Amino acid sequence: MKISSKAFEHEGAMPAKYTCDGDEVSPPLHIEGIPEGTITMALIAEDPDAPKGTFDHWLVWNIDPVPDIAEGGRPGISGKNGAGKTGYHGACPPNGSHRYFFYLFALDTDLDLPAGASRQELQDAMQGHIIGQGSLMGTYQRN
Fold it and tell me: Which residue, 93, 65, 73, is CA-closest to 5?
């Protein structure tokens, strides 16, 4: 699967709109090559450059297998992000430039997880059900 965004290029700078310095809305995502047999999709957005280890910015599952996730959208059920809340948490690096990865997984099932589930619970539930995946990476540095 290929993931892209009309808001920024792969490995390019994310506009402030999608960060703590802007509107803190999730960026629009476009998906190509969703595998046949996909029942739902799951998304993990993370910052591996965070000072205390990888910070989860967005965990979402049971996303309909559609080619577009709208800007600021709530496409499925949200898990607990690194701030301890559900929903999208915008990029907000404390220093330097950080990388933000959006990993999308095509699944052959619905996931039976409650809202607010952890990343580990999401990864455990996806085990054995991933039939395709793709990623998009953007960078952000605060001024």
Answer: 73
